[in-house]
Amino acid sequence: MRPGNHTIDEARQGEAMESRSGGSRKLYLESYGCQMNFSDSEIVVSILADAGYSTTKNEAEADLILLNTCSIRDNAEKRIRHRLQRLKSGKKSKPKLKVGILGCMAERLRDQLLEEEKLVDLVVGPDAYRDLPRLVEEIEGGQKAVNTLLSREETYAEIEPVRLDDKGVTAFISIMRGCDNMCSFCVVPFTRGRERSRDPQSIVAEAHDLFDKGYREVTLLGQNVDSYKWNVDAKGIVKNEAEPVVRFAQLMGLVSEVNPDLRVRFSTSHPKDMTDEVLEVMAKKDNLCKYIHLPVQSGDSDVLKRMNRGYTREWYLDRIAAIRRIMPDCAISTDIIAGFCGETLEQHEGTLSMMNEVRYEMAYMFKYSERPRTLAERKFEDDVPEEEKSRRLAEIIALQKVHSKERTTVQFGKTYRVLVEGPSKRNPEDFQGRNTYNSVVVFPKGESKAGEYVYVRTTSHTPVTLIGELVSEAEAKAEGYIA
Ligand code: SAH
Ligand code: SF4
Ligand code: F3S
Which protein residues are within 6 Å of ligand 1, measured from CB? Predict the structure, then answer.
């Protein structure tokens, strides 16, 4: 998962950070979990910069080490515990070093973390980052500090994030926080609190600012972007009649108007809330990228019911049909959980048949991991044996591999407008970027630069990457390029 797009990938380490001059004390920050956490880290760096901290990429010179953590699955938390083990030796040689835990694990475990992990000085939940300067001062004075208060209002709307991805081409914009859905397997409502949307004006202003700084792609972030709403309450009652109501479709329209050369992506959609209106707005504008991440979790309606997802297999397939009807070429990816409580072999087959019907471009696939306090933990037995979960997951992964390859073949042979992101991972002489479908395209860089749009004619491919050559705009037009 690149910093700049896509969805959850637990424990992807976001060590990339720019050095921000000014402060005398050094902060080393690592981010784990989803894009939301990476976006929050940029807010944390901004708040701590004002409190005299500059960031460093060099852990050894840090005065303060912060881990922005994830609780989504048990192994996400285990990884943090291992990381803390490794930090212990560092702290021995540098007794003044302070260590803090931010994010979802901080929120889930609160002061219990101080008991369990003796080297931790600071525990701060996702809604309490404004309090960091005060908390950091406390720990500098030798105390331990905790703030895990959740908020119904906090959106950090006016805080200007310090961008930690040094390429300067793609950026996240957080449009809402929290989640009200209560999917029975999920810890997020406990770690991130109630859903709240951010002022659309501040979102559009952030997009303008990014464009002016040279960014050419933004990803609008929320756990359920389809339920974004401004100036209207959960019951649909308008708060201020003099102001317009802004839902996700309108918000996308507003952000798409910032500039035709600013690509807009979003994550994550929820099948129960995704409207045709959103799809129609997407279809109208080339800069609204033709890519939707629509987590299915399971292909079986009974399992979906136990998951409390709020839709059936048929409903989900109807949403897929709507996407195909309104944007026939739109790429679709998903999240799948293998071996949820009570999942029978037949129900697992239902997931495989769902995959065969949709043929996802890409998927994030997980074994079910029971999380404390969730509905599933309280109500259902985690009864699919670990080995069987692994077997089912392997089957899902193998099938997805076939579909991903198939999709690459479909995309191969065409010419695309590609946003250049920077050097290719394999060969620094090549550049890589993405087409509208979020597929990686690699090509010899020629005269192109990161942050520019180029036209690439695809000439070969690997199972998941398109490889091509630069062509002129006139050639691309003649070839009927995909914008
Ligand atoms: N808000 C997004 C997803 C957030 S969590 C949505 O509703 O789609 C990202 C993914 O992690 C989920 O889609 C799910 O597939 C997976 N996940 C969440 N809780 C999990 C658990 N307890 N065990 C395994 N996977 C889980
Ligand atoms: Fe978790 Fe469901 Fe909310 Fe996604 S929508 S964050 S899976 S509770
Ligand atoms: Fe993890 Fe929290 Fe995101 S639990 S997936 S970091 S919202």
Answer: 8, 72-73, 185-186, 188, 223-224, 268, 270, 295, 297, 335, 337, 366, 368-369, 371
